[in-house]
Specification:
The complex is a heterodimer of chains A (about 250) and B (about 260).
Chain A lengths: L1 H19 L6 H16 L3 H22 L8 H41 L2 H8 L3 H38 L5 H9 L5 H26 L5 H31 L1
Chain B lengths: L1 E10 L2 E11 L3 E7 L5 H9 L6 E6 L2 E2 L5 H8 L2 E4 L11 H12 L4 H14 L15 H13 L5 E5 L7 H18 L2 E5 L3 H7 L2 E6 L2 E6 L10 H7 L3 H14 L1
Parallel strand pairs in B: 3-8, 3-9, 6-7, 7-8
Antiparallel strand pairs in B: 1-2, 1-4, 4-5, 9-10
Helix pairs in contact in B: 3-4, 3-5, 4-5, 5-6, 6-7
Classes of the chains: A mainly alpha (about 250), B alpha/beta (about 260).
Chain lengths: ~250, ~260
């Protein structure tokens, strides 16, 4: 039963994506909406990304120092391990899990409210492909802006670690900086960005899907929002494993 | 003119519409009335294409909507305006933005031309000066009028109104009815109104379709309704003492 339901939902999702990814009725309107969505979904997320990244960067540095403190391991290893965790996992996967909550619920509730207040029906009556009109700009905007958020996250997390080294005595600043630069593999940055692009598609499309097919009232919009966050989080974790296997091994 | 022929629609083995036939005329306010659950909304959604019936034909001036391809349906929809029960205005747009929306999407007008047309429609529904307001800043009646302005912006041939008076006070309801009736006659549109409001039925019903349990039970106009011997129709329309007294008075004066 669960399997057949899941397959049915997946089929519905594929048909939905087919409607979403179509040539827009008016490119000018599409571009204008995409820019608006970049501001709403991307730029408005920067403060949250900065705050979370600084604190998590600081916490990772402290935990690294506590866990690998040994006379046999050089102090710069703390900076190096912090960098690897941030580049490989935090700035893409964990950040996207956080954004699935913020952006995913925003998208699902916005589109869900439009559905229950008949705004989507109004678009359909006018002859507008509502899925394409509402959802495509969100997906494009979020995918376009996600690398910016990821790079922001990488930078501010490392600054968080730097600040903890600067204001405490757990590790000398020079060792932290040296560790950050040692054995740097550029591919890890690209790996994080590539993963985040896939996650951006998952977050925006899954949240839109749940919002678009809401039935009922305000309570159902809330439920769809929760379902969107839960489903996209699970999919992010699943694709994290798949992409890590594909890109790193 | 819109003709509905032998429409049947079911949901989960429950038949909502049984072989419904109806004709909706140009330049007339055509009303679909009936109790809750009688199939009014399903009939209207079938006509506008939000629901696909299992059987029958829906002819827009001879064009069968059920046999149209996607492109033909898209073209037809540019000839349709619809007023939703909850107005369905776009929250993020101003009144002007809402009314301009179909023009932006489907015409090649310049910005100035679109603005002029939208302001004309806003003025037509007596909302001059409200163009910069957002839907949340408007009363229910004003929102309905904005929705009417948006519906007529493309100068449609067919106007659909789903419960246009729901949630409105009697005075505003009459204003909306008069506006819809005036616009219908002014632009010679085929207007179909789905309503529960007996003031509308007796005030602007030039062609009334009465649905009862998914069947078309009666057809007539606001004058014929007083003398109809259809029991279900009488029970529905003249359910209150006030309307019964109105009926008795009208029937007695006719004699």
């Amino acid at each position: 039963m669960v399997l057949t339901d899941s397959l049915a939902t997946f089929g519905k999702y594929c048909l939905f994506i087919k409607r979403v990814i179509a040539i827009p009725d008016k490119w000018r309107v599409f571009l204008s909406r995409t820019i608006t969505e970049i501001s709403k979904l991307g730029v408005d997320s920067i403060p949250l990304v900065i705050i979370i990244s600084i604190f998590i960067g600081a916490v990772i540095t402290i935990q690294m120092q506590l866990n690998i403190m040994s006379p046999l391991i050089p102090a710069y290893a703390v900076g190096m391990a912090t960098r690897e965790i941030i580049l490989l996992e935090f700035s893409s996967s964990i950040l996207c899990l956080i954004l699935a909550g913020k952006v995913g619920s925003n998208i699902a509730s916005e589109i869900g409210t439009m559905r229950v207040t008949e705004q989507i029906d109004a678009l359909e009556i006018m002859g507008v492909n509502s899925a394409n009109f509402l959802v495509f700009p969100k997906i494009v905007a979020f995918i376009l802006f996600m690398p910016v958020l990821v790079v922001f996250c990488m930078g501010t997390s490392l600054i968080g670690g730097y600040l903890i080294a600067l204001f405490t005595d757990i590790i000398p600043v020079s060792r932290y900086i040296y560790g950050m630069q040692t054995m740097f593999i550029q591919w890890y940055v690209w790996y994080g960005i590539i993963k985040s692009l896939v996650f951006a598609f998952i977050i925006s499309s899954v949240a839109s899907f749940y919002g678009y097919y809401v039935k009922g009232g305000a309570l159902d919009v809330g439920k769809s929002s929760t379902n969107a966050v839960v489903t996209s989080s699970i999919l992010i974790l699943l694709f994290d494993v798949i992409l890590t296997k594909l890109l790193l091994q | 003119m819109i003709q509905v022929k032998n429409i049947t629609k079911s949901f989960d083995d429950k038949t909502i519409l049984h072989n419904v036939d109806a004709t909706f005329y140009d330049g007339k306010t055509n009303l679909i009335i009936g109790q809750s659950g009688s199939g009014k909304t399903v009939l209207m959604k079938s006509i506008v294409g939000l629901v696909t019936p299992e059987e029958g034909e829906i002819l827009y001036d001879g064009r069968d909507v059920l046999k149209m391809n996607t492109a033909q349906k898209k073209d037809l929809r540019k000839e349709i305006g619809m007023l939703f029960q909850g107005s369905a205005l776009f929250d993020s747009e101003t009144v002007l933005g809402n009314v301009m929306f179909p023009l932006v999407m489907f015409t090649k007008m310049t910005q100035a031309e679109m603005r002029d047309r939208a302001l004309f429609c806003i003025e037509r529904v007596n909302l001059k000066g409200a163009d910069k307001k957002y839907p949340s800043e408007l009363s229910g009646g004003m929102q309905k009028r904005v929705a009417i302005a948006r519906a007529i912006a493309m100068n449609p041939k067919y106007l659909f109104c789903d419960e246009p008076n729901s949630g409105l006070d009697p005075k505003t309801s009459i204003l909306i009815d008069e506006l819809l009736s005036d616009i219908t006659h002014e632009y010679n549109m085929t207007t179909i109104i789905n309503t529960h409001d007996m003031n509308s039925v007796l005030g602007i019903g030039e062609n009334i379709i009465f649905l009862n349990k998914g069947h078309r039970d009666w057809v007539g106009d606001m004058h014929q309704i007083y003398t109809s011997d259809n029991q279900a129709l009488n029970d529905f329309v003249f359910a209150t003492n006030l309307f019964q007294e109105v009926k008795d008075y009208v029937v007695s004066t006719k004699k």
